[in-house]
Amino acid sequence: MGTGGAALVAAALAVVVVTRLWTVLLHLVWRPYAVARAFARQGVRGPPYRVFVGNSKEVQAMRAATSGDTLDLNSHDYIPRVDVALRQGKEVFLAQRELQFIAFASIYNVRVPGMQYVPTKANVRRWQLERTVRGTLMAIIGERLAAAKEARGYGSDLLGLMLEANAAGDDGGKRQQDMSMDEIVDECKTFFVAGHDTTSHLLTWAMFLLGTHPEWQQRLREEVIRECGGAEVLLRGDSLNKLKLVTMVLYETLRLYGTLPMIARQATADSDLCGVKVPKGTLLLIPIAMLHRDEEVWAADAGAFNPLRFRDGMGRAAAHPNALLSFSSGPRSCIGQDFAMLEAKATLALILRRFAFEVAAEYVHAPADFLTLQTSKGLPVVLRLLDPYSWQETCCSPIGVHLQFDDSNCNVLSRSPRGVHLRRRP
Ligand code: HEM
């Protein structure tokens, strides 16, 4: 290559480097400061932004400071434990009563652009897991495609419908509803994650609340037996739909211990949120758990377990009909909410018909936010078998169980005079 060629390559490289540098500066310096200034002018303030780390360090320090705290069993105020940034936001929120939302420009982990491509230990593990997930899903899809070739069809479930949409795209003309294989794999991943942990945590927290409120547990048991019959009767969808008290308890569980304590939305255009100007691209964190404890919306007993607030339905439980945000709201709300509620009702009905239960003494009440709201060390409960005729406790010894609602994650920890102990696999 001549001198001219080398100069050309160097110039091209320089253009690429300068463009990249400009983008990095824009994202890491100019934009965060501009957004923080824009919000500050409107009265929404937080700790000052620092290049690269934002407010992550403050958030991490505050989370670390509260991680050892445990709560009283009657306290449902885990906000300071799981999101101390929200507590700080609450101060801003309260100080600026006229404002209707809190904006956070910080995220917990520092995100350096391009870092996701660096083979760090965590990234290598992530890549491995992604390969495994994709491989497993593609194997399932492969079986369906093979079955379809034998003219047995794609199946009538969600995967079958998506594969049909994929095949429809094979005839050349692309339609809006056609799906690529990558889109199908992504949808499957979403459903695996969104459809499993969420319901299992809802059930765990419902068991916690019923285990600490025996009077409600008994009311629910009576309702289940009245509407669905005893343990020997098969559960039916129509009888599950009649379980009003169970539904009320599940809503109250979702309010106090909703699986997703916070969701995020990005402004796709410059917007006006109740008088606060939100610039395009701003990431807004919606602190669901905190909103669910707002006394102006949920009444003075917002911090207490009171399923009766839902006696006239979800829409009338609070000052705003859409106040319960556990499944989010609007066009991107949870697609599986009816299914989740039915699943939870059926599981609770099965348990309530067979067992009386209480939270074991060794339980540590320290809800933790690992993307979903979880118990820190499982939920040890003591189950007492009920006599199927009298609904009284039998004379069998109680069984101590670590509940996880996921048998693939449980194993027998020990057998003790009190029964079998199960614990989550590491
Ligand atoms: C108690 C159980 C559940 C809770 C609390 C819950 C909560 C939520 C929330 C809050 C969202 C919105 C997330 C966001 O916008 O960032 C969501 C979305 C979603 N959920 Fe659920 N969910 C539950 C169960 C399920 C189940 C059982 C399924 C599937 C069978 C499911 C599938 C989905 C899907 C696919 C989305 C994404 C919808 C979209 O983006 O358009 N969820 N869920």
Give an overview in words.
This protein has 13 helices and eleven strands. Among the domains are: 121-188, no CATH class; 189-260 and 292-424, Cytochrome P450 (Cytochrome p450, Orthogonal Bundle), CATH 1.10.630. The termini are far apart. The chain is an alpha+beta fold and 426 residues long. The protein is globular, with a radius of gyration of 26 Å. A three-stranded antiparallel beta sheet has the order 5-8-9. The protein has a two-stranded antiparallel sheet with strand order 1-4. Helix 7 (181-212) packs across helix 10, helix 7 runs parallel beside helix 13 (337-354) and helix 8 (214-228) packs across helix 10. It binds protoporphyrin IX containing FE (HEM).
Whole-number mean pLDDT: 80
Into which percent range does the helicity of residues fall?
Answer: 40-55%
Q: Mind telling me the C-alpha Rg?
A: 26 Å
Order of helices and strands: HHHHHHHHHHEEEEHHHEEEEEEE
- CATH architecture classification of one domain: Orthogonal Bundle
| CATH class category label of one domain | Mainly Alpha
Structural class by SSE content: alpha+beta
Number of helical regions? 13
Could you give a short account of the major beta sheet? 3 strands, antiparallel
Subcellular location: Membrane
Cofactor: heme
GO molecular function: heme binding; iron ion binding; monooxygenase activity; oxidoreductase activity, acting on paired donors, with incorporation or reduction of molecular oxygen
Pfam families: p450
